[in-house]
Structures are given as structure tokens and as C-alpha cells.
Give the backbone structure.
Amino acid sequence: MYLERGEYKKAEQLHIEVKAIREKLLGKESVDYASTLHNLGLLYYQMSNFQKAEIYYIEARVIREKVLGKDNLDYAWTVNNLANVYLERGEYKKAEQLHFEVKAIREKLLGNESYDYAYSLGNIGLIYNNTGQYEKSESYYLEAIAIMEKLFGKESLEYINCLYNLAHLYLEMGKYDKPERYFLHIKTIQEKKFGKLHANYAACLSSLAIFYDEMGDQEKAIPLFIEAKAIREKIQDKGSVAYTKNLNNLANAYYNKGDIENAISFYEEALNSQEILLGKDHPEYAWILNNLANCYISINVYDKAELLHLEAKAIREKLLGKESLDYANSLSNLSILNLKMGNYKECEPLCLEAKTIRGKILGNSHPDYMTTLVILTHLYTVIGSYDKVEPLYAEILVQQNAYAKQALTHLSERELNRFIHRFSEIEDQLLSYALKTGNQNNPTSHLCYDNSLFYKGFLLYTSSRIQKLAASNPANVEKFNQLKSCHRRLAREYAKPIAERKDVEALETQANDVEKDLAGTVAGYGEAMKQVNWQEVQQQLRPDEAAIEFVHYQYYTPNPTDSVMYAALLLRPGDSQPVFVPLFEEKQLLSLLSKDEATSSSTFFAQAYSRGITPAKKENYQGLYELVWQPLDTLLTGVKTVYYSPSGAIHRLNLSAIAVDKINTLTDRYQLVRLGSTRSLVVADTISSYANNSAALFGGIVYEADTTASDRDSTYLLANHAGSLSFAHVERGVDQRGKAGEH
């Protein structure tokens, strides 16, 4: 009873008393004595004292095996619970081995359609979930659910508990179409079982609301949070931890929606509730202060935000010390606030201290550590300390690209899009810095070029290519799943403080071994994963060739503006580094359209290339050459062939057809070769998964030709004209047309 009520000290005293009696009367090898050891193991497990729990479970297991034998359900339960101890401690191999032993015993004694057997399947599924082996986890969860449905029906608590685990697995897998249906079913059953005025039903509403909020659907999330809050008020659960979390989650949803007024109101209510429940000197109270402060920052009420962040910092320093991550978070938040307020002298020491703490606890590759680097780049750009900026961006990009390469194997499409958005923000800030420093020998131009190669040539396409490669051969699927699970586990470990990470070296070795195996056995995998830098592109250029990466970016000052700028990163043989060439603001290009409102966008581009427009109309399209290409012309002396990768609105331009003057177009000056990325000069874009696709290509058809001409004559005609055929505008890479820049 005390165990059920969470009164662990009372339960512990009684179990120890029982243990002493049974040892005295029955001895240490009795069934009853083993039961007491088992119960003590359960108690310490509930108390999260896994070291003691392990000791008692091991002793109980030895006795039960000796007295009852291994083919016994009590023995199986002790082994089951010992396995769960190892699961909690992250010792997954031990947990897996023991749970398979339990599964075999239960199958032998009860069959493969029993509750206990299904319970074992669920535990094994949980191990695979925790180790990132989602595909295996899914199969075990589905088998357990099928048994629970058959035994108890779809409206049983046993069934919906399994369904809840599966729903969360699908969330982690990025299969977002299924969890909503499962959560709604669970909600319906909870309502039937407990009614609407019950804590379990309120908890179910909160879970569903958190799902909607995570999906960005605050319109569905907010009413559910409000309903859960109302239920807890009616059942007098207002002073609970769950109620305070409900308020905080509701405030988060309003903040994510952009309704700052309501967010502030509910954060303040959550603060009051937290103070009553656990007092002000509590980490959760500091987190709510942090969230409330960010609300005020978003509406530029900096004085209130500063007071709240300082209060949170003081609490964290008192409770956790100056070497804690929470304290570093407060320092980082205050540095951002001071940067926004223009207090640059106060900003730098706060950010540097946060950087030191995060580097020590999390390592230099952790996203939180990189956040401090980004803040410093903004600060040093604003105050003109340009010599400090380039090394920071170099470090950010190295770490970010390494993370991206690993993450591509396991991120869901939605997670990948989120990451790409964050990545593009860094790219925007780097290019804004390059524009601000404003000279062709820009010290960051090589970083800009490499970043564009990585972003357009690798990040936007490699994930889908890897999936195609994995599906191209059934034998590859298991290898890719192994790599996914390694990288998922590594991602979880890297997210922890260094001192808490487990098995990282072994996982890295395993991942590298699988990578080498894939590179050696899967055609196209090594090429898809290859990283390319600007020097390698340059090596592919002949003396009369050049490569251009066009880029477009939101301009930062360091705060984001509504200006979208365009630039060219030009690479020529013999250059010591690429050249950054500022071009135009997007609205300058779009303003050409507004001169003739009756002309549609597509008509504009068609007419812009035409030499036959009337002089009056031609004036409407003047400036296209000056805007897009003229800044490059003086840098292309002696160049005949230009390989270029478009970006943004430049995708809609046929550069070859742009008129230079009344007589010539760009194609009269250069052979322009359009690519998805100039990375294609180093690594072929096509992959073997397209090998089975076929197409018939017809060109140069003469419709009035004599239909009696022989096949031999047609072949001869083609051969004679082959030298004049040009593929200058054929993009390299069948899956790249029109995609680059659409982010």
C-alpha cells in the first residue's frame, strides 16, 4: 500500500522487517525470502535507485532459479524486472538478452497469445525504440497490439497502453499521419472508461494537444489544453504538477501561435501556480521565468525581459551553481537581450562565459555551443571586429556540416526540413556578413562557396538519394537500418552532457564500419555522401572556364530584414579563393514586372528575351543584363564556358537569352552550362536507381521531310550534324531541375 502511495521510506522499513523474519524462519533459499527480495528490487526501482534494485533482483533470480527452475513465471518476472533496470541504465545489450529469455519462457508456458507474452514483446519493442532501431521496434509493438486486441478488445486499457507506445514511436519515426488517429482513439476510450472529469482523461487531452502544437496546429492544440485545464480545476487538481505543466504548455502554444498577450497571461498564472506548489527556488520556476522573458523580448519590452532573465539566472546560480547548463542558458539569453538592446560591452562577457560552460559540459559540436558562436558573430559584426568573425563562421560550418551528414541518414522529412531551415539561416547570416564587408577579396568568400556546395549540392538532395539507394536492393535495407540506428543513438548521446554519454566510441566505430561497407557494396553511395570543396571544383576547370554559384539570402543587420539579396560566387582557374560579387535586391528584379501590370510574370520573361519587341516595350525590360550579369562581365575576361548554378528567381531566367545590346545576347559571348550545383563538376548527380528508367528523345524533326527516306539516310543525317548539337543547357542531375533555391 505504501509503495502504491509513493511513501517509499515506510514501504522500505516494512519490507526489510519481512525479509529478516523470513530469513530467520525459512532461510535464504526459500520461495518467500526470494519474494521479499523481488519486492525490495521493485521498491528501489520505483525510487530510481537502480544499483540497489539490481542487487536484490539478481539475488532473487538466483534463488528462484535454484528452487523453482527457469521454466517458472515467478522466475520470469524477476528476470523481466532486472532487464528493465538495465534498460533504465542504458545497458541495452543486457536488457535485450534478458527480455528474450523471458519471452521464450512465457511462450513455452503460456503460448504466444498470452498477456505475459505480449508484455515481453512490448518490452523488446521499447529496447529497440531506445536504441533507434525503429523498424524492429515497430514490428514488436504491432505484434503486442494484435495480441492485446484479441485478448481484451480495442476498448481495453491494455490495448490503448500499447497503442500509446506505438503512437510515440511513429512520432519519432516522422510518420505523422498515424499518431493523430491513435491519440484520438485513446481519447475516446479514456472518456468511456473514466468519464470527462478524470485526471487520466485530462492527461490524454494534454498529450493530444502537445502533438498538435508540435505539428504547428495551434488552432487544435489550444482548445484541448484549455479543456484539460478546466477538468483539473473541477476535480480539484489545481495545485498539482500536472496543472502547472498544463498552464505552461498552453502558454507555449499561444506563443507559437504568435498570440503574445495570452502567452504572457498563462505564463504568469503558471508562475503563481509553481510558486504555491514548489516555491520560487525551483528549476521549473526559473524555466517559466525564462519563457515569460522571451515573450517580452518578442514585443520589444526589454526592461521587463531583463528583470525576468536576471531572476532566473539568480535562481539557477543558487540551486545549480555557475557550472550548470541552466545557468549557461541564462547567460546566453541575457547576452542575446543585451545585443538587441545595444549593450555590446555587457553582451560579450555573458556570451563568452556561456560558451565556456557549454563547451566544457556539452563539447564543441553541440547545437547549444554553436548558438553562442552565432551570437558572437552577430556581436563582432555589429562592432566591426571583423578579424574575429571569419574563424567563428568557419567553426560553425564545420560542426554544422558534420552534424548534417550524420543526421541525413535518420531524420524524418519534417525534421530534415526544420534542419534545412536552421541551416539556411546560418547561410543567410554568412552571406549578409560577406556583403557588409564588401570587397571582392572577402575573407569569407571561400566559406560562402563551400557552404553553397554543401547546401545546394548535398543537403537538399542527398537524403532522398540515400533513400532511393536503400530501396534499390533488398539486401541494402538492413545495412541502412543499422546505420540509422547507430546515428539515432549517437544523436541522443551527443545531446547529453559529455559525462553522461555512453558507448559513444563503440557506436562511432560501428557506424564507420557500416559506412565503409555501404560505400564498398552499394553503387552510388560513396558519391552521394562525398563532401566537395571549392578547390576540387576549381581543379575541374580549364583555363578558359569559370564556375558560378548564384545565391539569394535574407539580409541580416544582424537582425533579419525583409530584404532578399542576390550575389554570385565566382570561381576561376588560378584564383586564390572564390570572388564574392554582390548583384541586386530581389525587388529590383520584380519591379521590372510592375512597369507593365498587364504583363504576367511568364509573359515578362518571354518578352524580355525577344529581339522583336517594339522599342516602347523594350524599355520595360531594360536592365536585366545590368542587374544580373554586368557586374560579372569584367571578371570573365578570357572565359568562354561558364558553369553556373541558379538560385531563387534566377531559376526562371534563361541567362543565355538575355540581351547584352541590340545585337548580342549572352550566348554570343559565353557557352553557359546550367547545373543544379557546381558540385556536379566533381561528383556525378545521377545514381543507379534511375538505371531502369527509359525515355525516347526526339529532336531536330523535319516535318516536311520525305517519308520514304531510308533509315540509313536518317542515321547519316544525324551523324553529319552531331557536331553542331549543343547540350549546354542540359542540367546534370535528373532530380535537380527547378529545385535549387526553393526553400
Notes: Confidence is low (pLDDT under 50) at residues 612-621, 686-693, 703-743. DSSP finds 32 helices and five strands in the chain. The first strand starts at residue 545 and ends at 556. Residues 535-681 form a domain with the Nucleotidyltransferase; domain 5 fold (CATH 3.30.420).
